[in-house]
Amino acid sequence: MEVVIVPDADAGGEIIAEAMAGLLRRKPEALLGVATGSTPLPVYRALAAKAAAGDVDVSRARICQLDEYVGLPAGHPESYRSVVLREVVEPLGLDEASFMGPDGSAGDVPAACARYERELAEAGGVDLQLLGIGTDGHIGFNEPCSSLASRTRIKTLTRQTRADNARFFGGDIDQVPHHVITQGIGTILEARHLVLLATGENKAEAVAQTVEGPLSAMVPASALQTHPHATVVVDEAAASGLKLADYFRATYEAKPHWQGL
After folding, report:
1. What's the pLDDT tens digit per position in 95-128?
2. What angle do CA 10, 12, 14 make, to 5 degrees?
3. Is 229 a catalytic residue?
4. Residue 133 covered by a domain
5. Which residue among 16, 79, 120, 244 is least enclosed by CB atoms within 10 Å?
6. Rounded to the nearest 5°, which phi and psi values hold at 14?
7. CA 136 to CA 161: how far, in whole Å?
8. Residue 11 belongs to a domain
């Protein structure tokens, strides 16, 4: 994996937004996979600013969702559909028709999972998938011990993940759903470019295990080691557990500026 160490979250957001913008300049109808939570917000702000300044035309871009809570009513402000529309689609000035995601309120959840898997394939696959990482090393909602070949499916959240997400539900863990639909690790690995963004010291151990540890289902994000084009962007705090941090810094500094991520 390529590892890029940046001073802070805003610097990481700018680098990734430029990678997305570069992709859209080459392929205006690119399918961008987005993640939710607080970590990727600098990416979306930076990309929206580039679009507003005329640096990139996003009008034909397509957006797809990584995961979704099961059981929240349609339009719930913390459903990931609502979050992505609010934080990504609307700031970019895109029509809702450009956005696709799984139906977490479906009566038949397994059928909704299979349908979303088909929709991703029919759309030609994800060109760039932005990922976050959990403190336990999960990506999407693929918790530890998830199959590295898994497809889009329903998953039960661990208490740790629900506790981490309680801040979006007024701090009340009891309001956080127990189940989600998530792209599987095998599905995620089919994206042409994977970009994982992590910030903060609480992610340092998970980042170190992902980048420098063994490939293991106990650290689902370690599956990125098998991908031909995976980039990990971390701030200094999240990089604090990396034994090869100096090597990664030197490697990125020596990279030709035109090559991008």
Report:
1. 999 999 999 999 999 999 999 999 999 999 999 9
2. 70
3. no
4. yes
5. 244
6. -65, -45
7. 8
8. yes
Say which CATH number the domain at 175 has: 3.40.50.1360
The active-site residue out of 68, 87, 136, 235 is 136
d(CA 145, CA 8): 31
Among all chains, which residue has been given the structure tokens 């980042």?
207
User: pLDDT over 70 for what percent of the chain?
Assistant: 100
Nearest Cα to 133, choosing from 156, 92, 161? 161
Domain count, the chain: 1
Environment class of 147 (CB within 10 Å of its CB; exposed 0-12, middle 13-18, buried 19+): middle
Q: Catalytic site residue 67?
A: yes
pLDDT in tens, 150-170: 999 999 988 888 998 899 999
Q: What are phi and psi of 234, to 5 degrees?
A: -135, 145
Average of per-residue pLDDT across 36-48: 96
The catalytic residue among 143, 164, 193, 235 is 143
pLDDT bin (cut points 50, 70, 90) of residue 231 is: very high
Clarify whether 257 is annotated catalytic.
no
136 has catalytic annotation: yes
